[in-house]
Amino acid sequence: MGNAQKGTRALVLSGLAFSLMTVCVKQLGGRLPVEEIVFARAIISLLITSIAIRRLGLSPWGQDKVGLLVRGTAGTVALLCFFYAIAALPLGSATVLQYTYPTFTAGAAALLLKEQLGKMILLALPIGWIGVAMVVQPGWVGQAGEGLPTLPALIAIAGAFCTAMAYVCVRKLSVTEHPLVIIFYFPLISIPATVPGVVRHGVMPTATELFWLLGVGILTQLGQIWVTEGLRRLPAGQATTINYVQVLFAALWGWLWFNEQINGTTALGGILILTASLISAKSRLKPQDSTQAQDEAASSND
């Protein structure tokens, strides 16, 4: 199997792992507060990442501590929003709204990293937001009450924005920091951030809920490992495009496991969001930059 095929396989497996992680969150049924789910996921990540860092003989603190703290904070808020959206919305809709992050990433990179917004990205922005409107279906899109509840939908979009900020931080930090160090700062921030909520609102999980919490942590860690492998073997723009398979997996699991129906408006909105996201992903890297991004990803994981 060639290098490109191995990278593609890793990214498809990553999308599968992340989509199954959302199934685990959905299976918890909303009885556990979101803070408790994020706390459990962070504990598992901390244990796995700490062991890997120790085996490689790395310092866990990194060089750009401010940037790492910002990345950890953005990732924590993004995950809180996403898990809340998964519990409150149909699985496919929550995942589609999360995947508005590439358009946010393009805008944030232009403002913070001085990356130029090309014509294709400027085209993708309105396409993506029309798709969001069709998925959310507020009162002015068809009859009121047929769409998603407004507050959970807005929280899902806020999570996508925080995801974009985390990705911009990762893009900047990857020049100087090992991927495991970047991952390590997520539990470093999310554990103390979620402890107050767990103390106030936490409930003792049942044996079944412990199983699903373990699934959340392990599947997320596997997804991150396979994303790293895919980025080591493929240009970043191409890799991001392949990883959108998670949306398709999520819609499939929602239909199979939770009997979630997908109407025509939602399906068309999802297609528009994916179209906009794919345009953004393909446009963020110039051809000559793809090889450089691939080399940087490869060197950071060797």
Please write out the topology.
Blueprint: H1 3-27, H2 34-56, H3 65-88, H4 91-98, H5 101-112, H6 119-136, H7 150-173, H8 179-201, H9 207-233, H10 236-242, H11 245-258, H12 264-283, H13 287-301
Q: How does this model look, in words?
A:
The protein is mostly helical and 302 residues long. It has one domain. It has helices at residues 3-27, 34-56, 65-88, 91-98, 101-112, 119-136, 150-173, 179-201, 207-233, 236-242, 245-258, 264-283, 287-301. α4 packs antiparallel against α11 (245-258). The longest helix is centred in the last third of the chain and has 27 residues, at 207-233. It is globular, with a radius of gyration of 19 Å. The two termini are 20 Å apart. The model is unreliable at 140-145 and 284-302 (pLDDT under 50).
Residue fraction in strands: under 5%
Order of helices and strands: HHHHHHHHHHHHH
Query: What is the typical, i.e. mean, pLDDT?
Result: 80
Counting H and I runs of at least 4 residues, what is the number of helices?
13
Q: What's the shape?
A: globular
How many separate domains make up the residues? Answer: 1
N→C terminal distance: 20 Å
The level of helicity is: over 70%
Strand tally: 0
Largest β sheet strand count, sense and barrel closure: none
Task: Briefly note the structural class of the backbone.
Answer: mainly alpha
Rg over CA atoms, rounded to whole Å, is 19 Å
